[in-house]
Design brief:
The protein is mainly β and 251 residues long. It has two domains: 103 residues, Immunoglobulin-like (Sandwich), CATH 2.60.40; 96 residues, Immunoglobulin-like (Sandwich), CATH 2.60.40.3450. It has two helices and 17 strands. The strands form four sheets. The protein has a five-stranded mixed β-sheet. It has a four-stranded antiparallel β-sheet with strand order 1-3-7-5, with no helix packed on it. A four-stranded antiparallel β-sheet has the order 10-12-15-14, with no helix packed on it. It is elongated and about 80 Å long.
Length: 251
Amino acid sequence: MKTPILTFTLSILLAVAARAELKWEQNIIELHPSAGDKQAVAHFKYENVGKTAVHFKSVKASCGCTATQTQKEVVNPGEKGEVTATFNIGDRTGQQVKTITVQTDDPNPTQATMILTLKANIAQALEIKPTFVYWTSGEEPKTKKISLKAAKEFPAKDITIKSNSQNFESKIVPGKPGEWTVEVTPKDTSHPMGTALLIQTDYPKEAPKSFYVNAQITNPMPPPMLRAPVQSNAPAVKTATPAAIPSPAAR
């Protein structure tokens, strides 16, 4: 009875000793692409520190804006490689978090699946303040201004502006290098309407970036007496009635 048990135990020990093990240099990479960059590329490096080969079963990104690529389909013991994740920035700004799920044939479930994370902190190429201007219906059609300022990493020298509505006139007033003022004036404020103003830059030359601001004529606010009352869930406060003061005759 001892021999089968010993053989079984030994086989388990040999299987554990001979298992595959893909060791990742890091599973989270944070990037800081410049304002004019089109892509952010992360290189997730690994090494097979086990005793058997590792086979990649699948490498999938969390969204279509990120492409993945593996150097090898099979990683032999002692070999190194990397999984490349390429994030297409487009018009996105701020922090973008993308994940890549890697599945291998490692028999250990905790080792078979690895989640890689790409964090891209994208600088705002063109600061726009405000991004929305409006007038109320019937208001005097005065000109309103929007300030634009290009980031240091976004060396735009010229911009143009277009509107999809003939009711709004817009023009660009240059300021300091990399700074402009957009002046928007409605021709008529008699009824509600709106437009999206397309701001086209000249950088980068092969694919100039575009931005949008909105202009709108809104309905006027109703008079206070016609507005819906504000509902409050606070309990009503009862005012105590002062005690009556006895007359001199009753004292």
